[in-house]
């Protein structure tokens, strides 16, 4: 069976690596998505364990499409009756990129009509009351290549279930995990975020360090369909829970705002990692908490939080207090495309990401000394 996992643009390589580590067969990697093959149980594993994915879609059909008639034929020929009851509540969304078929409203309405017509064709049902469980379909077309998809996830995967409160402009959980994995943080060595906000980076680091699957505390849309045996579902969750271990190194979260630290502690407890070391501390007073490790942080961007003067001051402190750490691997997410040049220290790598609709750049600095 084939599945399509979506992710933030720029995170495809990390998501591909995650899929391979879980034993999935990679079929295709494109901007913002990875297509892989696995079983129904593997699909549950993907939802539970992929840290950088946003949604897991079941690929029902795929084909080059150049007309709405071809779209209708593609959808009406699929045996929906094998996977969905006639009472199902049907939701259809569409996305189109650089394709001849680009009217999203038409794509949605034709797909929905073809699904309904399928039941009339094979079951003689003329009206679907849609009072049952929800099935969300996505028609995704890119360069005329169409995917007919069924959303297995429901609420996006970045909503792990632990963030009960957050500070202004929070980082999405799956993006935070991606930044950590890009920084080659796998729980080996200490971790610190000196501008932790609501604690997302530190919590994701703690989940990695303790080998805790990010989706263990939530459910997924496909679980309501009873496609996967409940016993298998329970056994897989119990197996992943049994892998959780005590972290071998420290995970630390710091912020000068007492409210941010209070929120971080609450969220960490909800995530099952209450052992994170959280404390109120100003970046002006920051010192390396140990001989070496990994530091990843998300700086204010100025669009939602922080004036330009405050950000300039913060960048100066970042240069003085953070970039001078010789034995630490550092990753800084900034809204400033010239951050590396203006701080006078060349980054090892710079990657562009979108945090929501905001352009950001991730500056990575390798340690210059061993510890």
Can you offer a commentary on this structure?
By secondary structure, this protein is of the alpha/beta class. It folds into two domains: 2-151, VC0802-like (2-Layer Sandwich), CATH 3.30.2130; 173-210 and 247-365, Vaccinia Virus protein VP39 (Rossmann fold, 3-Layer(aba) Sandwich), CATH 3.40.50. It is 31% helix and 25% strand. It is built from ten helices and 14 strands. The strands form two sheets. Strands 2-3-1-4-7-6-5 form a seven-stranded mixed β-sheet. It has a seven-stranded mixed β-sheet with strand order 10-9-8-11-12-14-13, with helices on one face. β11 (293-298), α9 (308-322) and β12 form a beta-alpha-beta unit. α2 (40-49) runs parallel beside α7, α3 (68-76) packs parallel to α4 and α5 (173-182) packs across α6. It is elongated, with a radius of gyration of 23 Å. The relative contact order is 0.12.
Q: What features would you highlight for this structure?
A:
371 residues, alpha/beta, VC0802-like, Rossmann fold, 2 domains, 10 helices, 14 strands, elongated
